[in-house]
Amino acid sequence: MNGAESVVRSLHAAGTEVCFANPGTSEMQFVDALDRTRLMRCVLGLFEGVVTGAADGYARMAGKPAATLLHLAPGFANGAANLHNARKGRVPVLNLVGEHSVRHLQYDAPLSADLEATVAPFSNWVKTGTSAATLARDAMEGWAAASSHPGGVATLILPADLGWNEGGVIAPPVAPTPAAAVADEAVSRAAEALGPGAVLLVGGTVLEDPAALALAAGIAEKTGAAVMAPGANRRIEMGAGRPAIARVPYPIDMALEALSRFDRAVLVEAVEPVAFFAYPDRPSVLLPEGCRVVTLAERTQDGKAALAALADLVGATPARAADAPRPTAPQVGPLNDAALSQAIAAALPEGAIVVDERLTRGRDVGTFAAGAPPLSWLAITGGSIGIGIPLATGAAIACPDRPVIDLQADGSAMYTLQGLWTQAREGLNVTTVILANRSYEILKGELLRVGANPGPTALDMLDLRRPDLDFCALARGMGVPAQRVEDAAELHRAIAASVHEPGPMLIEAMLV
Amino acid sequence: MNGAESVVRSLHAAGTEVCFANPGTSEMQFVDALDRTRLMRCVLGLFEGVVTGAADGYARMAGKPAATLLHLAPGFANGAANLHNARKGRVPVLNLVGEHSVRHLQYDAPLSADLEATVAPFSNWVKTGTSAATLARDAMEGWAAASSHPGGVATLILPADLGWNEGGVIAPPVAPTPAAAVADEAVSRAAEALGPGAVLLVGGTVLEDPAALALAAGIAEKTGAAVMAPGANRRIEMGAGRPAIARVPYPIDMALEALSRFDRAVLVEAVEPVAFFAYPDRPSVLLPEGCRVVTLAERTQDGKAALAALADLVGATPARAADAPRPTAPQVGPLNDAALSQAIAAALPEGAIVVDERLTRGRDVGTFAAGAPPLSWLAITGGSIGIGIPLATGAAIACPDRPVIDLQADGSAMYTLQGLWTQAREGLNVTTVILANRSYEILKGELLRVGANPGPTALDMLDLRRPDLDFCALARGMGVPAQRVEDAAELHRAIAASVHEPGPMLIEAMLV
Fold it and tell me: Which candidate from B46, B73, B451 shows the least CB-CB separation from A121?
């Protein structure tokens, strides 16, 4: 058995079922091994950013890593932006990256570049294979690193000759590191800090578990504290019957305002909230100056168990979810922000997976969706745009029975639009709703925030008109049926129809 | 004046006329400075890979760097693959990369990552600004680094606050390092080595100068040596009246065969040719074992002056170009490889700029084009696919009066297809000819070369069908008119018509 086959067989034995791939020459032996063994589902992306974003979406829903198959420094770099999101969101991803064979590395071949240096900023764990015999063991270490609580991006560099050399040895799984327990002292410190004027900030796995969320809400109720979630999270379980947890807003002034009333913060699998960006006259830290920060659970710790202990200590029980009204279909009318939010929320079916790369538009979708049937909400975790379409693709691979709705800003959609082709090829039930405002709207706000008074050159650089993008044509060019809508009631009907039909669909929502 | 404005004004004074941009928040102050000063042409790309590839194409034709405006580690990574090509091709590019403000770097903000580590593998020169007062001086250093012979990728990291802080000081240009002179001894060693059984391998600026090419060909004639060029070069001047120089082929066996008859090689602004990839049973070095290699001029040296000195020493004069026949329009018939090559070559008008991201198809276009009117030929220099559309975009910005024809493999086109939108927005006379074979054909060859016997999974991962891509729909979605052709005579007519009309056009050539 060659090194490549030993890796594929070992990863599969450990539970790896899917390989998202954009293969190149340096890892042809892995393509061959995947082909001969037929153990994994191989999903082709036409661009590496699709591959890595899909691996992220898959892992968020499957709760375990997929493998990616990438090649050399430029190929990895093409996928790096979405790995950045996975790394920030602590999503388990295992990258297999083909490198030149060891003897070829000494030459300055056209595709040579420093691969280890390239992968490091986008990985939590990096290793370069050294022999065919140890390659599967390296892969198992990487798999464990990716799978350790709360998850991470592991990158294994595979020199080509180690893949094609004979002498591969299947390696047993390496146990991932489980969530570390929280000390009793941390629980009592948290209990002491909670009360009116305090915020319980819960993130990570807590948000993925409705019971833990209800307990967090119960603790807040009992102590008089508020409960919030970080601005961006890999997954939140929400909808009817689940507590609606406010998130720290993205715009700096709204974030400062939302947190201004707290003088204590208790963190559970979350870090102290900081601004996305610095501005000349705004702080970087979002909690008020002097706010006391108590960490109940680090991101590597078991936040759910810590909340259970905290609930015991303060005598809290799970909160009953507020009865949010089931969203209703909007009236006929233009697609302003409220109508857009309502149209989307009212169309969400039971078990929907919502991918959120809205950025500026439809801010109230989440509020409306609090009364929708139970759903999973996946956000952009590292601020790197171009993840929505890939994320939706991967989530649909993980959950073939659940409809996926991607709320997709138009500018961001153009980064990794190629993912639509993969959706068509794999027949995935993904409804992509393009929120077409035809500008980098979010950047106009940022331009004002640095004190600029934008003229035509600046506005032109933030504008997606001239020519207008036709997302329906783009979708059809990749085999995805598409429809343009300009009316709120029609948007609702289009989404509601699409989620009940197999295969992908793109809806270009023309916003006013 | 703030730091950003001092950079823009200094760069413009040094001759920087164009800024290719995909702006994000961290460099909003640069957008503002570009807006207020109106000194540079700002060209928006909808993805960073478009921006960097366009800067490459611009510089290859303008002979000087454009600026790029990029943001943070994930944004830079999105543009890294095409910077890899520029770095390998030694093309002058100056990247301005926005970073978080200095005080914000201490926090793990969502978009924080190690930016210096990210840019290093794709840059010949890297610096991070430290104050508003010195930012323009840093930019001038970067401009000089990019412009020094033979060119390079310079990356200046700009913390946001240095851009918005007052105290910017306009800096005078820093002189680029010119090509270093070659020692007399190197010339005599080269003269001694040349003769039958020797190859004169000329690259870099030699290929950009028809007179230098003619001299190289004359030296070869006089001494009985062969003359060749590396496999991929940033620019070759070719066509009628210019010597046709054979290039080292891409496929390993063809490359080994082409070089097998040489026992001496003389290098002029070229490095010893190595294989793109290593294979289990093939050498990495392409020259035969024992072949003596003499360097007349390193890439940093003045190859043209060295050739002039060498010609004096051996008594050579410029060669007369062979009278290659002017290519004629093909007959009606299917688009096989010969008909494709002929159709393209026959349609090339005077002054055409040909961008070559063909990969496997149309191998004889270059041979046919030897008799076409004089033209410039731009190839993919670092093996990283997805450069054709951006490269064509940048070349057209640099040379508004010359038609650009991009010979574009279909799989590669999908990496940076967004560049079509920029072509439409800027009204560029670019004809994109999609060579639609609907597969990663080049990888099928590579799979066989590692000894695989591909089954359905492997073939599926190298296949672009299911669903078929409709490049005409994709082009129209970005405002570019498009036409599908299946006949050789029709392809010739379509290209010939498009190059004489303003604005972009995409022709999807359905290959058999």
Answer: B73
pLDDT at position A430 is 98
What is the location of CATH 3.40.50.970 in chain A? 3-164, 337-510
Report whether A56 contacts A390 (CB < 8 A): yes
Contact A161 B424 (CB under 8 A): no
Intervals of CATH 3.40.50.1220 along chain A: 184-314
How do residues A59-81 score in pLDDT, each as one tens digit?
999 999 999 999 999 999 999 99
> In the CATH scheme, what is the code of domain A184-314?
3.40.50.1220
The mean pLDDT value of chain B amounts to 95
Q: What size, in residues, is chain A?
A: 512
Give tens-digit pLDDT for A366-412.
889 999 999 999 999 999 999 999 999 999 999 999 999 999 999 99
Task: State the pLDDT at residue B71.
Answer: 95
Contact, A263 vs A235, CB < 8 A? no
**Cα–chain center distance at B368:** 21
What are the tens digits of pLDDT across the range B485-505? 999 999 999 999 999 999 999
Q: How many CB pairs under 8 A join A and B?
A: 325
Distance of CA A302 to the CA centre of its chain: 21
CB B372 within 8 A of CB B326: yes
Residue A273, pLDDT > 80, answer yes
Instruction: Tell me which amino acid residue A76 is.
Output: F
Q: Hey, is the C-beta of A275 within 8 angstroms of any chain B C-beta?
A: yes
pLDDT tens digits, B158-188:
999 999 999 999 999 999 999 999 999 999 9
Q: With CA atoms as reference, report the closest residue to B238 among B260, B274, B206, B283.
A: B206
Residue B24, token pair as written in the block? 């994000």
What is the rounded average pLDDT of the residues A6-33? 93
Q: State the CATH architecture for A3-164.
A: 3-Layer(aba) Sandwich (3.40)
CB distance from A78 to chain B under 8 Å? yes
A232 interface with B at CB cutoff 8 Å: yes
Taking CA–CA distances from A69, the nearest residue in chain B reads: B461
The pLDDT of residue B365 is above 80: yes
Does the predicted model carry a pTM greater than 0.95? yes
Q: How many CB atoms lie within 10 A of CB A125?
A: 17
Name residues 43-62 of chain A within 8 A of B (Cβ): 44, 46-47, 49
Question: CB-based contact (8 Å) between B278 and chain A?
Answer: yes
Is residue B14 over pLDDT 90? yes
CB-CB: which of B122, B160, B450 is closest to A32?
A: B450
- Chain segment B89-135, per-residue pLDDT in tens: 999 999 999 999 999 999 989 999 999 999 999 999 999 999 999 99
**Superfamily name with CATH number, domain A337-510:** Thiamin diphosphate (ThDP)-binding fold, Pyr/PP domains (3.40.50.970)
Is residue A80 within 8 A of residue B80, CB to CB? The reply is: yes
d(CA A495, CA A505): 9
Q: pLDDT band for position B445 (50/70/90)?
A: confident
CB distance B122 to B90 below 8 Å: no
DSSP labels, A185-240: HHHHHHHHH-STTEEEEE-GGGGG-HHHHHHHHHHHHHHT-EEEE-S--S-EEEST
| Surface-to-core class of residue A456, CB atoms within 10 Å of its CB (0-12 exposed, 13-18 middle, 19+ buried) | exposed
Taking a C-beta distance cutoff of 8 angstroms, is the pair A102, B268 a contact?
A: no
Cβ proximity of B352 and B499 under 8 Å: yes
Reduce the DSSP state of residue A71 to 3 states and report it.
strand
- Report which residue type is found at B268: V
Which residue of chain A has the CA closest to B74? A81
pLDDT of B345 = 96
pLDDT, position A245: 93
